Amino acid sequence: MELPDNMLIPCPDVGFQFRIVGACFVCEHYKGLSKPIVGGVEVEDCQPEEIHIICGRPTTRKLTSWINK
């Protein structure tokens, strides 16, 4: 599966700013590509925008408190 050269991705290594997706293919955290799945079956004829990069970089997430009143 090939992706066009003009595809961008928000990258955790640069503060989630956009990078050219080609940077993923040489990154130590790159774990492959994933096509969309519908009804448990991988979609074969999907558009490049529907493909996901599998990134192995651990990321932090902001916590939000929820107060039950």
Strand content of the residues, in percent?
25-35%
How many individual helices?
Answer: 0
| Structure summary, number of beta strands | 6
* Low-confidence blocks of residues: none
What keyword list fits this structure?
two-stranded antiparallel sheet; 0% helix; mainly beta; 69 residues; single chain
Could you please describe the fold and organization of this structure?
The chain has one domain (1-69). A hairpin with a 5-residue loop joins β1 (8-11) and β2 (17-20). The protein has strands at residues 8-11, 17-20, 30-34, 37-38, 41-42, 52-55. The radius of gyration is 15 Å and the shape is extended. The termini are far apart. The strands form three sheets. Strands 1-2 form a two-stranded antiparallel ribbon. Strands 3-6 form a two-stranded antiparallel ribbon. With 69 residues, it is mostly beta strands. The protein contains no helices and six strands.
